Hints:
Distance between the termini: 27 Å
Helix content: 10-25%
Largest sheet: 8 strands, antiparallel
Shape: globular
Amino acid sequence: METTSRVGAEGAPDTATAEGMPAARRTVDGYLAAPFPWYALDDAFAGPRRLMQVGTAADGTVQHGSIGHGDEPSVRADGGAEKQRFAVVVTVASSPVRHSGDGTGVLDATTVSSAAWLAGSGLLACTWPPQMDHSLRDDWLAQQTETAFELADDLDGPAWSVLSLPVDGVPVPFHYRESEFGWVLAGSAHGGVHIGAYGRGMSAYGLGFSVVGDITTYA
């Protein structure tokens, strides 16, 4: 899946930008531009929620985005990251192989594997073994990212198990895997979207997902 830019930033503060528009407002505008519904944890989760970022294709079409729950994921060399409790839900628009809107190329199809890859890479972005030297992090991240891509491309492989979780109150099968860094899962929802999720410190087994009625309440 080809994405070339991001609208908004993880944990964007509600401050004025150079264009005079609050950062939080710009973030939610990216979500409002999506032609598909957004998913988050259902009402059983009572903790804090926040918009993180959206990803767009070369022609500016919104393809996916993330909504965070619980602690804000971060890399902490003091080992504090292990105490974090968070879950991030990634919504990915389902689409076939197609030409880009600007006519410059072809966009890959987006599938459940796309959701698994985005969730896996999202978990890696907030993971860093505290004993690792800074100079080795790029090599480690490149190796782990390639592994995450290969795993996402083989959802029927031995690294994954099947976990049934409710989506809008209906049980849906998800591909699920755990690692020393946290957990990742991916499945399909209604409305032409796939759901990916990753987290740490929160059990995936008790989660449920539901469509977001009003995304502006997250701003």
